[in-house]
Amino acid sequence: DMKRIIAEKARELFICCDKEEKGFVCRRDMQRLDGELPLTPEQLEEVFDSLDDDGNGFLTLEEFTEGFGGFLGLNVDP
Amino acid sequence: MDAGKPGATNEGVLANFFNSLLSKKSGP
Predict the structure, then answer these.
(1) Inter-chain residue contact B4 with A16, CB threshold 8 Å
(2) Which is more confidently placed, B27 or A44?
(3) Which helix or strand (DSSP H or E) is residue A31 part of?
């Protein structure tokens, strides 16, 4: 089903950011994407802030999946 | 889309981020 496919895709993309497979993405991980993605460090920071719902400085797979679902215009329960 | 330009909407930046990640994953 669609939600599961999206959740799986979100997981794949999450792993691109969480290269050490810690289970979360921190600001430092995000800044490492500078050079890999056509975004400025400021934009990466902005992305991090908007995905980090509770603002605790750690981006979980759940938060990431929600953000990805929102980007696709869907509500996804991981 | 305005993503990538200064003053782009937050939504645009997010879309740019996910699009870039997706094309990085599926690209060559």
Answers:
(1) no
(2) A44
(3) helix A27-32
- Chain position carrying tokens 């889309």: B1
Q: What CA–CA distance (Å, rounded) separates A3 from A65?
A: 10
For residues A31 and B5, the answer to whether their CB atoms sit within 8 Å is no
Of B8, B14, B17, the CB nearest to A37: B17
Over residues A42-66, the mean pLDDT reads: 95
Q: How far is A49 from chain B (nearest CA, A)?
A: 10
Mean pLDDT score, A47-55: 94
Amino acid letter for position A24: F
ipTM: 0.90
CA–CA dist A22, A42 (Å, integer): 24
